[in-house]
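Supplementary notes for students who missed Thursday's class. We covered one full example, reproduced here. Read the sequence, then the structure, then the short commentary at the end.
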Amino acid sequence: MLFSDIALFIQTKDEQDFNLINKKIKFLSSDFNVTEKDFLALPNDSIVILDDFSLQNTKQNKTEFLKVINYYLRHHNITLFLVIHNIYSTGLMNEILIAPHVILAYSNLGYYILR
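Structure (token representation):
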């Protein structure tokens, strides 16, 4: 199994979307955010998936988000997947476009950005 020995945490509105992947999935509460405080509760060497991610666009939230993805995740060996359906509504358009670790797939907007 792909994630058999890795702690896998998912935040989603519909848990049924992920139930068949792995029975060891731990679902995160809807108020989990990309903040150091929230990530402190997770173990090192884990994978976090945030489905339908959107950042509440305030300077404080953006600063905290960047601190977590640029420092905390790397130092705690946590892999973060953000499932974003609308890149414009995330509040992170510039950060996502210049990130070296972004995958855009299967959307007209993704094609436009890659082009």
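Commentary. Strands lie at 7-11, 26-27, 46-50, 79-82. The radius of gyration is 14 Å. If anything here is unclear, bring it to office hours.
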